[in-house]
Design goal:
Blueprint (H helix, E strand, L loop, with lengths): L27 E8 L7 E8 L12 H15 L6 E2 L8 H9 L6 E2 L14 H6 L10 H16 L2 H11 L1 E5 L9 E5 L2
Parallel strand pairs: 3-4
Antiparallel strand pairs: 1-2, 5-6
Organism: Streptomyces termitum
InterPro entries: RNaseH_sf (IPR036397), Tc1-like_DDE_dom (IPR038717)
GO molecular function, one term: nucleic acid binding
Length: 191
């Protein structure tokens, strides 16, 4: 809810001022998956989570939130998924690991420690911030969530944008032989 500071042009001596109501420290967290399958258009699946503002409440996604996102992705994609995750603590939580082991449609791989350049989802936030969220003062958390959803929906329909985020990482997807469990895809670097 705290607006970003940006530079702009104006007449000399007339600094533009944007008034912001209710400067809030509450935040919106977003978990997302970019989904790639050879021969199909890439997909973006996401879930926003609002901070409820309570002192004892969690401000970000828990392992349960990530689990629910994986379940939603499995239902939307109608098939097995192989997420490649960064090393966020919630991604490596014991409960999430146990959940993955119990599901035959889910195999989780982790990126090397501190490799943000290999995560295509990290690159999705930049066009969102520069596009639909820039130069706006949000009046309520609901207004912010509405704009985030609208911006991500716009990105969802831009296959070239999602493909470009994978290309920026230098990774490619190559299908391997099918196993009894599911089709596996190797994420391999061109470097």
């Amino acid at each position: 809810m705290t607006p970003p500071q940006v530079r702009t042009w104006s007449q000399r001596g007339r600094t533009p001022v944007v008034r912001v109501r209710g400067r809030s420290r509450r935040r919106i967290s977003i978990a997302a998956l970019t989904c790639y399958k050879p021969g199909h258009r890439p997909r973006l699946i996401y879930r926003p989570r609002r901070d409820n503002g309570r002192r004892d409440g969690r401000k970000s996604f828990s392992r349960r939130g990530y689990r629910d996102l994986l379940i939603a992705a499995h239902q939307q994609l109608d098939g097995p998924i192989v997420p490649v995750r960064d090393n966020l603590n919630a991604h490596k939580a014991a409960g999430l690991r146990e959940f993955a082991e119990a599901k035959n449609w889910l195999t989780i791989y982790h990126l090397p420690p501190y490799a943000p350049g290999l995560n295509p989802v990290k690159e999705i936030w930049s066009p969102l911030r520069r596009g639909r969220l820039s130069h706006l003062a949000f009046s309520t958390p609901e207004h912010l969530v509405q704009r985030i959803r609208r911006g991500l929906r716009h990105i969802q329909y831009r296959s070239d944008l999602i493909d470009g985020r994978l290309a920026e990482t230098g990774l490619t997807i190559r299908p391997t032989q099918a196993t009894e469990r599911h089709h596996e895809f190797n994420l391999s670097s061109d470097h």
